[in-house]
Amino acid sequence: MDVALLPSTTRTLDHLLAREQSEARLPSVVAGLVRGGGLVWSGGRGTTGLDGEPGAGPDPLNTQYRVGSISKTFVAAAVLRAVEDGLVGLEDPVRAHLPELVDGVGRVTVGQLLGQAGGVQAETDGPWWERTEGGDWDSLRPILGESAVRHRPGTRFHYSNVGFGVLGELVGRVRDSTWREVVAAQFLVPLGMTRTTPRPQAPAARGLAVHPWADVVLPEPEHDAGAMAPAGQLWSTVGDLARWAGVVAGTSGVLRRSTVEAMWEPQSVDDARGSAWSVGYGLGLQVWNAGGRRHAGHSGSMPGFVAMLRVDVETGDGVVVMTNSTSGFGDLPARLLTTLAEREPLDPEPWAPREVPADVLELVGPWYWGPSPLVVRAGRDGGFDLRGLTGRGRASRFVPAGEPGLWRGLDGYYAGELLRPVRGADGGVSHLDLASFRLTRTPYDPDADVPGGVDAGGWTGGA
């Protein structure tokens, strides 16, 4: 889809980027916006010290920055491809694939590690791994015993870099390869992400720390993180991460759409007790509740670098921002994405008639769960949507369950539950049997076999 932004929108975006670079005192910053699967705007500001030239400015499409924990999304995608291929199960304990991990992390499931719900310790026991040369798997393995499990698995959000070191080893083991080679073969090469690499390749920004009280900078170290590399090793560009945004949005084709939708579902919630959730963790993705809209992606930081990749899963619009400063940027990614949505609103898809299967068409219209009105509307995937007629009530999408006349819920309260239309003596649908509930065409229809029966006196206006 060809998208050209208005000059006034481009000017506003450029100004937001310039202001953030100046006010946040960023050595350099690059950003891009994605719409319709393509990069519709990009910009760069500041100097990166490219190839020893302090005055060189960044090229958003070609200058590499370290993306930190955005690397985790690549490892997660590789794990989920192994799930798609039947090599791994989300409920598998890690020791099923790494048998040397007998206890501790070995008893945590693959899905719990992906969802940051495994309770595994956040960092390594040794020196600050982000700033020191990493060791191999044999050097990481001794800390993965029972003491590494800090919380009961599956009970709470606890961000773990160590857990993704384990997942990187698991991916390599089940493919008889390394996580780097798997990620390159399954994603980087097919998507044309030629500027995404485990170590920097010129032109690449130099990682810097900016003094909090003076306008001076300090170079940060760069190294191979070894067994911890899956937690934050990769370098990339705005151009390449714009392609990766298509994977997060579920439009790239390198993962099944159903797999990506599962990645969006919160597995654990990172919020103070008693507050409405705003940030959570799906299967390898951070998820945000942005005023009722679901965003997905990941932030990243390593010494000298901060990055963000974020996608509105409803529209597919995405934002990428990277800087070579340890202290990073503020809410610039959200402001860029909001500016795109407000100044260049997406037109709705044009309505047009379409074929609706006969077994769906006979179900559309109002139904009642007791006295509560619901409505069935034909969907776009050969199934239908069940919603509260007044905006209240349990809602789910339903698709064929493989057996004629049987439907399975995809989401909401009825996710995974079965719905069966029950026919009367005349062959017409008498009622819907949904997870033991009876949905009828009129409230408490006495002819629809309502469990518990319907009072013979019927509806009355008096005692």
UniProtKB/TrEMBL annotation:
DUF7586 domain location is 356-441
Record-given protein name: CubicO group peptidase (Beta-lactamase class C family)
* Natural source organism: Kineococcus radiotolerans
Using the record for this protein, list the coiled-coil segments as residue ranges, or answer none.
none
Q: Where is the Beta-lactamase-related domain?
A: 15-331
